[in-house]
Structures are given as C-alpha cells and as structure tokens.
Amino acid sequence: MSNRPKRSHDPYAVLRIPDFRLYITARLCITLAMQIQAVVVGWQIYDITQDPLSLGLIGLAEAIPSIFVSLYAGYVADMVPRKKIIMVVVSVLMVCSATLLFLTLDVSNVLALYGVLPIYCVIFLSGIARGFMGPAVFSFMPQLVANKQFYANAITWSSTTWQSASLVGPALGGLIYGFFGIQAAYCTDAILVLLSLVTFAFIGSKPLPENINPQNLKESLRSGIKFVFGNQIILSAISLDMFAVLFGGAVALLPIFASDILETGPQGLGFLRAAPAVGSVLTAMAMAYYPITVNAGKKMLWCVAGFGACVLLFGLSTNFWFSMVLLALSGAFDSVSMIVRSTLIHTFTPEYMKGRVSSVNSIFVGSSNEIGAFESGLTAKLMGTVPAVIFGGTMTLLVVGFTAFKADKLRTLDLTPDAEPA
Questions:
Q1: Is residue 47 included in any domain, yes or no?
Q2: Range of the domain at 99
Q3: Which pTM does this prediction carry?
Q4: Can you tell me whether residue 4 is helix, strand or coil?
Q5: Mean pLDDT, residues 206-213 taken together
C-alpha cells in the first residue's frame, strides 16, 4: 500500500462537470460583452456631454430598474426553471446590444435629435434584464454542481471567469473603439451576447429544488428578506460590500481620469478598466488552489480595508502606471471579499430560497455598483473628481472599521469543513 498522502483539495473538481464548463463559457461571453459595452457607452456619453454627472447617470439608469424588479426576480427564480429565465434575459440583452449598434449607424439620426437620452433608455431596459438575470444565474449554478463540497471551488472558477472577462473586456473595448471605431465595438458586443445565448441553450434544463414551505408572493418575498436580516453573517457581509462598492466607485470616473488627468485616450481607458481584473484574476486563481477557510471573516475585513486604501491612493495619483498598479491591487482585495461572501451565502442558504436571497444580495451589492457610479459622478460634480475619489476611499475605510466593531460573528467566521456553524 502506498504511503503517499491523498490530495485533500482538487482545484479542478467542478471543471470536470460538462454543464458547468458550458456555464462558465456562457458567462465569459456575456461578461466580455457587457464590459465592452460599459467602456464604449461611458466614453461615448462623456464625449458627447463632457459632464461627469452624465457618467453617474449611466449607473443610475441601470440601478433603478434593477432594484425595482430584484425582489420579484428572486421570487421568480425560485418558482420558474432558472434556465428559462436566463434564456429570456440574455435575449433581451441581445436586443439592447443591437439597438446601441443601430443608434451609431449613419441611417439613424436619433442621437442627433435626442442627444444621449436614447442610450440611457437602452441602459434602463438592460437594467431590468440584469435585475432578473442576477438571481437566476446565482441560483442556477449550484444546480449544476449539486455537491455542496464543491461550492467554494465552483464560485472560485466562476469568479475567475468573470474577472478574466473583466480583464480582457475593457481593454478589448477600448482598443476596438480606438482603432476601429464605435460601430465595430458595438458589433463585437452584440456577437458575444449571441454566443452566450447559444451556449446557455446547450446546458441541460434542471428542475427546481423542492420547496418544503410553499408560500404566496407576499409571504415568499417577506421570508427571503427575513432570512437575510436574521442572519448576522450574511447581513454584515453583504452590507460591508455594499458600502465599499458604493463609496469606492472610482471606476465610474475613469473616463475623466483617462481623458483629463492621465491623458491616455480610449485605449488607456480600456487598460485602466481592465487593471482591477488583473489583480482579481490572479487572486481568484490562487484561491482555486489555496481557498480561504481559516479566519475567513477577518481576512475579508482586511481585504475590504485594502480596497479602500487603494481607491484613496488612486485619487491622489497622477502617474498612469502607478494608477494601474493601485487598480490591480484593488481588484485583488475585492476578489477575496467577493469569493468569501458568495461562498458563505451559498453555504448558509437553503436551495429553495437562493433566488430570493440572491435578489436581496443584488439590491445590496449588485445595484450598489451602479448607485456607486452615480454617487461618484455626483460628488465629482460637487467636489471635483480627485476629492470625490479620496472621499470614497476614506468612507470605505470607516465602514470597515465600524463593521469589524459591530459584527462579531463575521469577524470570527471560519469556513473550514469541520468548523462549528456560527
């Protein structure tokens, strides 16, 4: 008999599941598309308006409908097969991408007549679609994995895929826009959304998990909210991320930094948008091999503090390469926080409630990206671009300190398999 110790952790476990491979491929395509679209829309609107508040309004146009439909979307994700929801939502996003392309064609005079309003309308529609997509995708993934022991591994690879697309997408969008023009960029966006739709179609349909406590719409929504607010670990983790993203939304102001402060143009904007994903991808890949389990809560708090410090220093930087390094480090810290938060939500939430809990998480964290973009645009309008970013980084550090003091269960959270439940 061999005395060689058995390997306790397989970093490629979920990649051996065919449906999960299709899932992350589809997520790669849709995330690439959305990242390209975000860069192009941001540069296009700022180029037309020259107003920092107009950049914040992009986030608000997406956040308002997303928040409005999120709770109902969570209920739907627990009552309707998740793949059906995803197929409808990606089809709507396909229409949005095609519309943005149409608005740039010579045959269209819509932007000349109405300015940037039609672009905001398209973003509003995509916000509705994303509001439904978040809970559906979040709750669909564990159905592909089935074994709870693989959740952390699945979340890590899913995060790595998302961050990889976030790395390549902005740079690709900036380069295509800079060298081939806006129509080529929007065309690439539309093709990638179509590829995502086709790939999702090949994933096998999964039945809904058995609901041991059937409820009507009102009771169902109430139970999802009650579950989150009754669990200190989940509530404090998503609250921490919400305020960190809300105040640390420097990414929304990157078109101003690229155009007026660092003077790099759309190509440089693409690289700046991609920089956080560089750190995120490297960190997520490392976590696939060395998952964070011991003192996970404490490490999460330190990483969110590191994110806030990077945002603060980025606001002070006038050097392109130093700014790139700071953004990469912010992405690395954010990756740890996101993976730990997603792991504990999947671990502590019953399968039949994951749609509703995910919708609450989307309101707290997902929509705070867009609201954070509005906050950054508004504070930049009132205080100036650099003071706004410094203010955001400082507020993030204060939020971390308050959370560490109040949330003792998160501070002592341990995700080792034999750890006692909090």
A1: yes
A2: 14-205+217-411
A3: 0.67
A4: coil
A5: 68
